[in-house]
Amino acid sequence: MTFLEYAPAPESTAILNLRKSYGLFIDGAFVDGRGTPFQTISPATEVPIAEIANANGADVDAAVTAARRAYERTWSKLSGADRGKYLFRIARLVQERARELAVAESLDNGKPIKESRDVDIPLVAAWFFYYAGWADKLDYAGLGPSPRALGVAAQVIPWNFPLLMLAWKIAPALAAGNTVVLKPAETTPLTALIFAEILQQADLPPGVVNIITGAGDTGKALVNHGDVNKVAFTGSTAVGRAIAKSTAGTGKKLTLELGGKAANIVFDDAPIDQAIEGIVNGIFFNQGHVCCAGSRLLVQENVHDEVISRLKHRLSTLRVGDPLDKNTDVGAINSRQQLERIQELSEVGEQEGAERWSPACELPTTGFWFAPTIFTNVSTSHRIAREEIFGPVLSVLTFRTPAEAIAKANNTPYGLSAGIWSDKGSRILGVADKLRAGVVWANTFNQFDPASPFGGYKESGYGREGGRHGLAAYLEARGWNSPVPSEGARA
Ligand code: NAD
After folding, report:
1. Which of 39, 201, 364, 477 is deepest in the core (most CB within 10 A)?
2. Gap between the terminal Cα atoms of the chain
3. Active-site residue 361, yes or no?
4. Full-model pTM
């Protein structure tokens, strides 16, 4: 079969106004870091983009001190309506600079420009608009009258949705009246630093948000700092577990958003063409660097061959390559380290006897790339069915009855999300009810909305982000015995 050829359609980087080097954003200004600076590179080309400051313990202390001072002197003295005005202003500035932010995100992260332009950045603005609206309505958050802010929030985020994860963390924290020190991931600090410029444009009082860059040691110093009241972490289960241990007994309120190994369940009565699109979106969106990715496909046995054959056909139309090309469907893997992990687990899949398939596709010779991959003949005991690969790799299992689908879907240490494809509403509701997953999508996948809580069961973490539930993670009820929707939402 021949396909129409696409002419290259690269998005211009002329809109970027990047500095050669970025300092730490502390107390409203960029300052030098005391650690050894590092480069952030484009994972598609391995070309350095900018030099980034590295925060050591003293820098972390300066950032937390600035956040504490801002909390006591300014932010906690403002009315909710006034805090909301700042958040609305930030949301509008994100919209104004949306194209620049999208280009910077694709350059630094490797994700296709059509995703950063149409998904990440619009959701960032939506998150700030949504929580701006809550800032003067905290009495209605479900925590009783006048719930109290916690104080200084320490927030550590990963590299897969750099600016979106920042928005998920900062917007509810500020709306609830807290001040923030946030550390972006070391491979994707760029948009957080452009966001710091947006905060200056928005005239946000100095110290209300501080952004410090660095690797795991910086994150560790931040979450262990004695003067933070709240720790919010998104990242790997291993680091989440270490943070849970180190914060236990300190009185710091903790939310963890960790890994996943979601089941995407296709019943034989599903609209197959739609399901194919949902499977592709579930695991190949953002190169599969998605904590809630549908990385385990459970297909009813009698439609397995048809689904796999149509899926292979669809995969051979995916365009893998330059993240800044508007036609690209699958971009670069975020780092060499992540690429090696994906390669290693895929080799294990083959050794364990699963059947590996990728479409013919030419990968660029520089940068970090991995072809979209499907494993069939996978059994529940295989490592590729149990461990999070966090890349464009789908493991396919089969089932015969709804009960078997549910048992296999729940047979995982994780519980972040799941998908169900079926024509029958009653079947969808019946199955969804029995899945141990924080989010269950029906006849769709990877849909996000700021009004909808998101979070996991078991090793996927605890606490909820988004919606009214997301506010509860940053507030304390005052003397009113109300049902707290957030932390208690974990079953
Ligand atoms: P990671 O845990 O290594 O890093 C995440 C962040 O934590 C980075 O900013 C890193 O510098 C920092 N960090 C590393 N060690 C630390 C320590 N000891 N103390 C404090 N901070 C530390 O994870 P990663 O490899 O960057 O991200 C991939 C993982 O994140 C995947 O497992 C994925 O499932 C998970 N993730 C989960 C969600 C979610 O919402 N549940 C979202 C995105 C990613």
Report:
1. 477
2. 50
3. no
4. 0.95
Query: Is the C-beta atom of 341 inside 6 A of ligand 1?
Result: no
Which tens digit of pLDDT belongs to each residue from 346-384? 999 999 999 999 999 899 999 999 999 999 999 999 999
Which entry of 186, 257, 387, 388 is annotated as an active-site residue? Answer: 257
Exposed (0-12), middle (13-18) or buried (19+): which is 448, by Cβ within 10 Å?
middle
Asked if residue 186 lies in contact with residue 28, where contact means CB atoms within 8 angstroms, the answer is no
Is the beta carbon of 258 within 6 A of some atom in ligand 1?
yes
In this prediction, the residues of the chain whose per-residue pLDDT falls under 50 are 482-491
- Please, what's the b/e burial string for 333-347 (b: 16 or more CB within 10 A of its CB; e: otherwise)? bbbeebbebbeebbe
Quote the pLDDT of residue 479. 59
Q: How far apart are CA 29 and CA 364, in angstroms?
A: 39
List the residue whose alpha carbon is closest to atom 34 of ligand 1: 259
Q: Residue 150 corresponds to which tokens in the numbers above?
A: 């916690």
Name the nearest CA neighbour of 172 among 448, 468, 488, 449: 468
Residue nearest to atom 22 of ligand 1 (CA): 216
The two tokens of residue 59 are 């820098």
213 lines ligand 1 (CB under 6 A): no
Q: What is the pLDDT of residue 459?
A: 86
| Residue type present at position 241 | R
Q: Check residue 110 and give its pLDDT.
A: 98
The residue whose two tokens read 């954003």 is 25
DSSP secondary structure string for all residues of 179-222: EEEEE--TT--HHHHHHHHHHHHTTPPTTSEEE---SHHHHHHH
Q: Which two tokens stand for residue 67?
A: 């956040």
Residues in the chain, how many?
491
Distances (CA, A) of 261 to 341, 352, 354: 15, 18, 17
- How confident is the model at residue 477, as a pLDDT? 82
- Ligand 1 in reach of 141 Cβ (< 6 A): no
Return contacts of 197-204, CB within 8 angstroms, 24+ apart.
198/90, 198/93, 198/94, 198/97, 199/25, 199/28, 199/90, 200/28, 201/93, 202/86, 202/89, 202/90, 202/93, 203/86, 203/89, 204/28, 204/86, 204/90
Q: Which ligand 1 atom sits closest to the C-alpha of 256?
A: 41
Tens of pLDDT, residue by residue over 411-433, are 999 999 999 999 999 999 999 99
Rg (CA), the chain: 22
* Residue in 259, 226, 221, 225 with CA at minimum distance from that of residue 240: 259
Residues 6+ positions from 185 with CB-CB distance below 8 Å: 157, 158, 159, 162, 235
Q: Is the CB of 215 under 6 A from ligand 1?
A: yes
Kindly name the residue from 291, 292, 387, 465 that is annotated as catalytic.
291
